[in-house]
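In pairs, describe these two lines:
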Amino acid sequence: MLASVQRNVYYFAMCYACGTPLKYGEKPGFNDVCPSCGADTHVCRMCRFYAPGTHWDCAETVDELVVDKEKRNHCEFFMVADNLAKRSLSGSPAATADAKRRFNALFGD
């Protein structure tokens, strides 16, 4: 006879606005906010389906457009992104400026 095993699942994320690590016993709720900066956490920018450039910037088949990707929404498809740290760093102004500086250095500019 097999024993029943209950597993605790934790969702780890990083705040898209300030980079603070977040830990939840379950996925962030509709009204959850970052304890450091107060930014909403149930937002498109923190979702694994957020895909700029796709239809309504979402890889899921959502029924309506979410206009502000940084404001809380009630999307039932929401799942915490596992690549949020890489996604956040790659689009930051500092990372963009550094990439441009390194590119220009290749050609002596």
Observations:
- Residues 11-106 form one domain.
- Strands lie at 11-14, 21-24.
- The two ends are 71 Å apart (CA to CA).
- The mean pLDDT is 76.
